[in-house]
Amino acid sequence: MTYIMVDIESDGPIPGDYSMVSFGAVVVEEGLGKTFYGKLKPISEKFIPQALAVSGHSREETLAFEDPATVMARFARWIKENTTDRTIFISDNNGFDWMFICWYFHHFTGSNPFGFSSQNLGSLYKGLVKDTFKTFKHLRKTDHTHHPVEDAKGNAEALLTLKNKYGLKIRL
C-alpha cells in the first residue's frame, strides 16, 4: 500500500459552493521526497474572506491560479507515477480534506484514484495511545504554516513516527 498524506486549503466549508484554493500531497516514506502542489482557480463566485485568508492568498491571486481540471488531471498522473499498488488517502482532518479532493476528482476527471475511502491521522493516533483526548500534533517536525505541502509533510512525519517509535503496524 502507498499512503499519500494530503492537506487542502479552501475559501469556504464545502466543495461546489466554494472552492479548493490549493492542496499538497506527499508520499509517506522515509525522506518524504515525493510531493505535489496544486493551486486552483475558483469554481464559484462565493467565498468567505476569513476562510480564504487562512490560505495566505487574496481572491485576486486565486483568480490567476490554474484551471481545476488541469490540476486534478496532473495530480492523478502524479499519483499513478508515484505508486505501484493500492493508494491510501490520509490526512489530519480527512472529513474536510477528503470531501474536497473526492469532489474535485469526480467533478473534473470522472473518477477518484483513491477510491471511496480515506483515513484520519488524528483518529489513528487516538486509537494507538488509547485516549480520545490526545493529539498527534506534537509529533510534527515541519511547522504547520497552512502551506499545504508543508502541512502534509508535517503530518507525514507524524505518521512515520507512529510507525518507527510507537510500533504502528503499517505497510509503507
TrEMBL record:
<dbReference type="InterPro" id="IPR012337">
    <property type="entry name" value="RNaseH-like_sf"/>
</dbReference>
<dbReference type="InterPro" id="IPR036397">
    <property type="entry name" value="RNaseH_sf"/>
</dbReference>
<feature type="domain" description="3'-5' exoribonuclease Rv2179c-like">
    <location>
        <begin position="3"/>
        <end position="159"/>
    </location>
</feature>
<protein>
    <recommendedName>
        <fullName>3'-5' exoribonuclease Rv2179c-like domain-containing protein</fullName>
    </recommendedName>
</protein>
<dbReference type="GO" id="GO:0003676">
    <property type="term" value="F:nucleic acid binding"/>
</dbReference>
<dbReference type="InterPro" id="IPR033390">
    <property type="entry name" value="Rv2179c-like"/>
</dbReference>
<dbReference type="Pfam" id="PF16473">
    <property type="entry name" value="Rv2179c-like"/>
</dbReference>
